[in-house]
């Protein structure tokens, strides 16, 4: 009699002759008698619906299927339909074995962000769960992702400029060994825009699109977007108006009737400052200066 086989199929991505393949491995059978494995590959074409991709009967303890961008694409969930694997032998057939599905795609980590208008940088990692393959481009093999942002606003408001800013407009995923579910990774920082407006909490969307990839596998794929919620914070204001009256960030009020060019405000943490120019506007009766020009960096 054939001993029970504790089949535990595991799906891993591999490069085979420069093409992306998925490999299904299962526990090795006993040496005698010889056995055959019937392996069915399928993908979830819609929730709860499986579409068969490939079927084979093999004495090997593994099976390959190519991610060709047509039958099997990035973003597909690869999962075995019942029966997933059968051990064929004259004495009978062992019960089918199941394996968990494999999501094959670019992934953002974390999948969503909640940040505040405090200037803090938040690291966002984009990774690929399958190897980066560029047939015929071994010297400059990479997948470039173009990043973009969009303000989703609120349901009662018209979307405006994005509430977030990125450290880069594009990132490159370079080929490398797969480890821990990651075959390539890149980082970008996300910062909330300090917009000096009390516009409440807003939601922005960060999207990534492959920029002119040479492989159909990547060309037809749209990665999942990242939702970024920006928490509105009160911002300070300073003023210089009329002849001129000045109110500082902390509410101190005074007048300045001097004529000349002056430094109105300067940041101690970044390259930002504002200069004002005041000219005589009082005539012969009074010494009064008025704002006539402003320069900001």
TrEMBL record:
GO terms for molecular function: signaling receptor binding. The keyword Isomerase does not apply. Keywords: Disulfide bond, Signal. Residues 236-297 form the VWFD domain. One of its GO terms (cellular component) is extracellular region. The keyword rRNA-binding does not apply. This is VWDE protein. The lineage of its organism: Eukaryota, Metazoa, Chordata, Craniata, Vertebrata.
